[in-house]
Amino acid sequence: MGDMVEKSSEEPLVSLDNEGSRKMGELVEVSSGDKVKFDDTGLSMVLQNGLENLRLENSLTDVILCVDSMEFSCHRVVLAAASNYFRAMFCNDLKEKYEEKIIIQGVDATTMQMLLDYTYTSQVLITKQNVQKVLEAASLFQIISERTKPRMHEFQSEVFMIIGGCTKDEKFVAEVTCLDPLRRSRLEVAKLPITEQEMESENKKWVEFACITLKNEVYISGGKETQHDVWKYNSSINKWIQIEYLNIGRWRHKMAVLGGKVYVVGGFDGIQRINSVETYDPFHNCWSEAAPLMVNVSSFAAASYKKKLYVIGGGPNGKLATDKTQCYDPATNNWSLKSPMPVEAKCINAVSFRDHIYVVGGAMKALYSYSPLQDTWCLVTQFTHERASCGISPCNNKLFITGGRDEKNEVIATVLCWDPETQRLTEECVLPRGVSHHGSVTLRKSYTHIRRIVPGAVSV
To answer: What is the pLDDT of residue 411?
Structure first.
């Protein structure tokens, strides 16, 4: 939203432009030699007024937003230009891109009218009675100014997502559990992309895939039956969007983010462990090759720290595990070996947190940390049971370890929390069911659409 003038009285708060007025812009002339540049600062206002008039006349509108029992005629291009929510909806291959009428949920008609007025005019009437609803809706549709962004943290939470995985009877689950540990709440999140027929046939579509977050969007890739597939979850519109396929299909691999790009590393192609590394450019929606791993591995751990990518442990074959730490430098497009893990391990996961990389899983019964700055390893804490193929995510300055399988190959439902400040390991909650081989990532979500945890479903 635009800047607001805050008053202590009961008078309405009115959004203003940066100079506190609505006067037309000026024609600025800048001369340089034989060139003259004219900057008509009033043109933007003329365009805005013209778009508002077109909306009022219902001219050239191409979409109708349905909120409660009201309908709002709008221009797709205006909505997409002003809101990342609508940009994601209209600029990706979603059904809403072609629909004439779109049902909008999570906001009432009065607040929607105010946001549309603001989008087309830069003005909105704010009162103490409606300010919270307007800010919450602005957060939902991502219509936020730089000045307003800090305030939006009041309406957002850092949450961790538990994506898919396998249950005790080796059944695939498409559910995505999104938990807010601070508010003890659960968010409604779109399931993994899968058809009803696939669910009924117990299809293991999303098994042993990989996932990562970039700019608050979740990327998933590969899997036993989806070796080349890559999808992106847009939290603004709560939808999964398919993007460009991998060049080399794989599962039991890992993903990482480095330099604004997504990396897909190693894994298994159904025949052998592979050393292939691919990088994804979100702007151009394309994959390219990077230097291959020094050691072919699957079921390893991977994380990035500063400007380098680390691949830790893994299985060079079906029986053995390795302790090697492989480090990739994108500046030179080369891999090198660093200090090995204290133990050989596979079916593990890692996350970068503060100045360390934390590794958990496999048969280790422990949480280890690696310091990229000092190239040293340290035992952080020990567990009572193994947690093979568990997940790990940083959230609210703590580490959350989810699910996994114990030494009896039974799935685990508990969520552990490691607090680096107190150096304590505690049981945070119990999931509705045990799960392993799942994805675990962190992102920010608006808490205005959080559904409270159902008693008995997740105990805390």
So the answer is: 94
- pTM as predicted: 0.73
Distance of alpha carbon 169 from alpha carbon 314, whole angstroms = 25
CB-based contact 362:313 (threshold 8 Å): yes
Architecture of domain 13-147: 2-Layer Sandwich (3.30)
| pLDDT per residue as tens digits for the range 92-109 | 877 888 899 999 987 899
For 413, phi and psi rounded to 5 degrees?
-105, -10
Cα gap 389→207, rounded to integer Å? 12
Regions in the chain scoring below 70 on pLDDT: 1-33, 144-156, 183-185, 188, 195-205, 446-460
Sign of the dihedral defined by the CA atoms of residues 159, 165, 167, 172, in that order = positive
* Residue 38 bridge partners (DSSP): 29
Cβ-count burial of 456 within 10 angstroms (0-12 exposed, 13-18 middle, 19+ buried)? exposed
CB atoms within 10 A of CB 448: 16
For residue range 220-274, list pLDDT tens digits in order.
Answer: 999 988 899 999 998 777 788 899 999 999 999 999 999 999 999 999 999 999 9
Q: What is the CATH number of domain 156-293+354-452?
A: 2.120.10.80
How many residues does the structure list for the chain? 460
The rounded distance, in Å, linking the Cα atoms of 210 and 225 is: 13
Start-end of CATH 3.30.710.10 domains in the chain: 13-147
Element (H, E) at 136: helix 131-141
Q: Which residues, including other chains, have CB under 8 Å from residue 408's CB and lie 6 or more apart?
A: none
Q: Look up residue 324 and give its two tokens.
A: 């090697």
Query: Greatest CA span in the chain, whole angstroms?
Result: 81
